[in-house]
Amino acid sequence: xxxxxxxxxxxxxxxxxxxxxxxxxxxxxxxxxxxxxxxxxxxxxxxxxxxxxxxxxxxxxxxxxxxxxxxxxxxxxxxxxxxxxxxxxxxxxxxxxxxxxxxxxxxxxxxxxxxxxxxxxxxxxxxxxxxxxxxxxxxxxxxxxxxxxxxxxxxxxxxxxxxxxxxxxxxxxxxxxxxxxxxxxxxxxxxxxxxxxxxxxxxxxxxxxxxxxxxxxxxxxxxxxxxxxxxxxxxxxxxxxxxx
Length: 244
Description:
- The protein has 2 domains: 4-69, no CATH class; 79-235, 3-Layer(aba) Sandwich (Aminopeptidase).
- 25% of the residues lie in helices and 34% in strands.
- It has 7 helices and 10 strands.
- It is globular.
């Protein structure tokens, strides 16, 4: 993991990992070095990183950007589980994600995140696809996609799905990671999402990968399901948009 330093005339005011998220540049895992103030970091961020997403465990840093006009994108918790606990998980038949055009299941996917849900998406179909789905067709994502990624078909309709990739950051920030898991309430059986997660952990364990991580938004009731499957909170984080 390569760290980027943000500097002022007195030295480093912020350390972060450069990345992208939802089509925007990302300052990930951001932290203020010892001896420097949040105010110093925010001042330089506003000047040089306008339009970036900032992801951090540092509440004062997130609050400093928000006070300066930033917008909170997400307040979430990173959780992880040991995959060995699901070696006996049932086999759930799936089809490859890449074999089905996203437009065939987009509206079903959106019903899993209705208005009022902390992960609800607003916009036209094209805007949502560009923001949430185009990245899965990029070469670097395809290279990291784990074989447990798949979609569940019931009566010819996509009823549920899971997307698991290998993030380059170390555990608990990365490694095997649930990018998304959902079920369409109208056409799927309750418990399908939990069964897909258990199957992914069984397959990861078979591949010698001992942990699975995910991020759950504050207020998402799915957290209770994750906890029943053995996921444990590792850290709390905020993602904020640095104002232009």
